[in-house]
Amino acid sequence: MKFKFIHLMLSVFCLITSCSSDDEYDFNTDFYSNANKSITTPDVIGTWAIFNLEFERQTFQVPIKYQECGRDFIVFKENGVYEETVYTDYNCKKTVNTLNWSLVDGIITISNNFNQTEEIVVTKLTKTAFNFKTKLDVDEDGELDIVTASLKPYVPKEIDNISDTFLRNTSATANNYISYTWNAYTGSEPFVAYEIYRSASSGDFCSKNNAVLVETFTDANTTIFRDISPPNEEHLCYFLRVKTQSDVLGESDVQTLNTYNLIATPVNLEEPIVLNNTISLHWQKSEMPYFSHYEISYSNYAPNSSGFGEQNIIVAKITDINKTSFVDENPPYLENPYYSIHVYDIFGNKTDDTTDGYKTSWEVDFKRDEILDLTHIFSYEINPKTPNIYFYGYNSNTTEPSKIYNYNYETNQLDAVSSRKINYSNYVPIKFFATT
Prior knowledge:
Elements: H1 4-16, H2 27-32, H3 41-44, E1 46-55, E2 58-61, E3 73-76, E4 81-87, E5 94-104, E6 107-111, E7 117-125, E8 130-136, E9 145-153, E10 167-168, E11 179-181, E12 191-200, E13 212-217, E14 224-226, E15 235-244, E16 248-251, E17 255-258, E18 273-275, E19 278-282, E20 291-299, E21 312-318, E22 325-328, E23 338-345, E24 361-363, E25 376-382, E26 388-394, E27 403-408, E28 413-417
Antiparallel strand pairs: 1-2, 1-3, 1-9, 3-4, 4-5, 5-6, 6-7, 7-8, 8-9, 10-11, 11-14, 12-13, 12-15, 15-16, 15-17, 18-19, 19-22, 20-21, 20-23, 23-24, 25-26, 26-27, 27-28
């Protein structure tokens, strides 16, 4: 196993040198010589960066590959954890290699989970300098060479690679939530918090000036936010602030959300039950965030249909999310009405009339006894002395001529229907005459 970090520095080193050595000597004696056996584990713990490499008594400076990112570095942590951090592009994307380390008599053993090991021999260790020898095949001749690395304490450059990742959560499970995600902080400085701020837009633009702190996350691995109790505003604005121990690492741009774009989630309506002159409805409880109310309505047309004489009547608005039933004790004077349920959120978003996978409307087999089978009424007249009303028109059987229907509104029955053909225009109104 070879150190990924040392290999990266060596790639620069080999461009400068011939990377060759023909000297013959006792390799192991040379490698383990001058080990500083007096150092202790606490002396090693810290963050270090390689500034120079020495090979064949020549010293070469290790340049910074990406100036925007600073130096690659290694960290010896407590509990035997060793980390190498290498930047791989100008955007400071990095790879982190985590291994194990232990110290015995000035020799540090680096190991992985597969029991592969590599030794480095510490020759100097102070608060300001850390020198060690490692074995590498510098000239690629199949023989190991000894390279000495000179390190200094290093404070990694903190890079804000989080703020630009703060974006609306567009996953399928979040389309009815106000939700945002971002990348996790992986810097070397102690993490403090992610802070989420919210404001309402003034006109077409969002401002940070009137923003309020709505959520604080102290776990660096938490990278998702849901606003559980937003205000009822048409436009809401959010931004992220990242804090480390020393300062504010970065702050995102303001993200504007139009709340009318949130998706309202339907509920299934069970088949209504007719009992005498009432219609009983039951539905599943809504799980929609920002719930406002259920709306019960009926119509004389099926959902997504319309026509002449269309009626759409709201029967009830129920603001209790746990109430999942309603009895219409005054059903409409319609034959086989369509009952529907819609769910609203606080922003006014409403579920669609029909949604795949949901049953939100039913045609109810219901008709009041007093409803006549008349489709066209041209005129009517009321008997002032009896509970009768006379209709002039015809029923759904349009092949029959218009007739006069004598309806008793106390018994809800037809008392008589004219049998003689009427030789007058349909537009001549009927009149009631009392004879002696």
